[in-house]
């Protein structure tokens, strides 16, 4: 194999070069490098037969979610829900493309995206949020008002289509925080499903992390519902659905239920 730096053929340095001494010039240094390169074998085989490699040295932690017996959905059910969800997202995209002007028309004023308490009241109602001061509502807007009800506002398309991606991700983060603090409900399940349906790909790294946290919280609530022998089986089904969408549709398969 020919050295990369080529061969030095200067007779001035060939005759007087002493290999036992340190190089005294640039040419002597290059000659030393050339000589060492010619002494290297073309192929080197590493010997890894060592005791320290006989055992696994990396501790791999599994990311599987807690799976309550008899409460996890089948693989077929997960795939069917994923396909239905993908179809809904396509319909939403087509509708928004055809109705760019009319899709934003709504007689409800949305809270500021940075006001978590207002969104809590808006989505989940007074049973979950704190009572608002009546002065927070702009009385000058006669045809629009912030939703204020016991059960909160439904995630209607007229509301969702007014939310840009920044707002969708922010409100989704609020719901994940509330899920950690409160119990899970069908009201919150509807909002989570709707927000996920409006979440555009590709996902940002922080959004992926948020979805994984959502799946873990849902798995914990599912385990609690099973342990307390709740009569509301639909609540477990709703939690299974959110976990399935995060793991199967949004690609976090390491957290998926085995089915």
UniProtKB/TrEMBL annotation:
- The yes or no answer to whether the keyword tRNA processing is present is no
Cellular component terms per the entry's GO annotation: SMN complex; spliceosomal complex
Keywords from the named record: Cytoplasm, mRNA processing, mRNA splicing
Where does the sequence pass through the membrane?
Answer: none
Q: Which Gene3D superfamilies match?
A: 1.20.58.1070
Keyword Lipoprotein assigned to the entry: answer is no
Q: How does it assemble?
A: Part of the core SMN complex.
Name the chain's protein: Gem-associated protein 2
Q: Which organism is it from?
A: Exaiptasia diaphana (Tropical sea anemone)
